[in-house]
Design a protein that fits this description.
Layout: H1 13-21, E1 28-33, E2 36-41, E3 47-50, H2 59-65, E4 71-87, E5 92-97, H3 107-111, E6 123-138, E7 149-165, E8 182-183, H4 185-192, H5 196-208, E9 213-218, E10 221-225
Parallel strand pairs: 3-4, 4-6
Antiparallel strand pairs: 1-2, 2-3, 4-5, 6-7, 8-10, 9-10
């Protein structure tokens, strides 16, 4: 099998649910697109790729597909996670909510590996803000960090919102500054209420996209402006 073809053997329920939501009335999934295969294709011929991890592996694939066709990358943002823990016999031990909550800024964690991707013509990135149920099994085969508990599956529980990023200018919504303001990574982190590491990743991506530019330094901090 070609390395360009995405297999479905290890596909999560979450990935499968999102794929079919965008596959149109004909349920066109695992659709050939040139030398690649996309997760789905809509009724009007737009290719769909559901990407839960880094965007790095999509760089060449997206470049080829968007030369002649439209491509929409669906990236789920897990705003709430419900964790169900089962024993090795499949009996539910307990259910709880994870204290960790994702937000749209998480996009830059994965986009940092392909910062020029949003500049491609015919490409749309769509953030699906969702709730998921994560099934874990306590059978001793999982990570030592989880004390042997393994993640068996993630499934879609609820869809809350959708954010469409179609053009480079759409990414300006992430920047709470005016045209004349100058700011640092710390300024962005404080004003947006995000982790400084995410702010740093965001500014790296937005600089590569030409949305912001470096204009100097203040002590040891790089200063940016729109």
């Amino acid at each position: 099998m070609s390395n360009n073809i995405i297999g479905t053997r290890k596909e999560s329920s979450l990935h499968r649910s999102l794929k079919f939501q965008y596959s149109g009335k004909e349920n066109l999934v695992e659709t050939p697109a040139g030398s690649y295969v996309c997760d789905a294709c809509t009724d009007d011929g737009e290719y769909i790729e559901v990407q839960t991890g880094s965007f790095g592996p999509l760089k060449e694939k997206a470049k080829e597909i968007t030369k002649k066709n439209k491509l929409r990358i669906i990236h789920p943002i897990i705003n709430q996670k419900h964790i169900e823990l089962y024993d090795e016999k499949g009996r539910l031990k307990h259910r709880r909510k994870s204290p960790l909550k994702g937000n749209p800024w998480d996009l830059f964690k994965v986009l940092v590996y392909a910062p020029s991707l949003p500049l491609l013509k015919n490409l749309v990135i769509e953030l699906a803000v969702i709730e998921v149920t994560e099934k874990r099994i306590d059978d001793g085969t999982g990570s030592w960090r989880r004390k042997g508990v393994r993640i068996a599956d993630r499934s879609l529980a609820l869809r809350r919102d959708t954010i469409i990023l179609e053009k480079p200018k759409d990414y300006k919504q992430f920047l709470p500054f005016t045209k004349k303001e100058q700011f640092t990574v710390r300024d962005l982190a404080e004003k947006a209420g995000i982790n400084p590491d995410i702010a740093r990743q965001a500014l790296y991506v937005l600089t590569k996209m030409g949305i912001v530019k470096r204009v100097g330094k203040k002590v040891n901090a790089i200063v940016y402006s729109l």
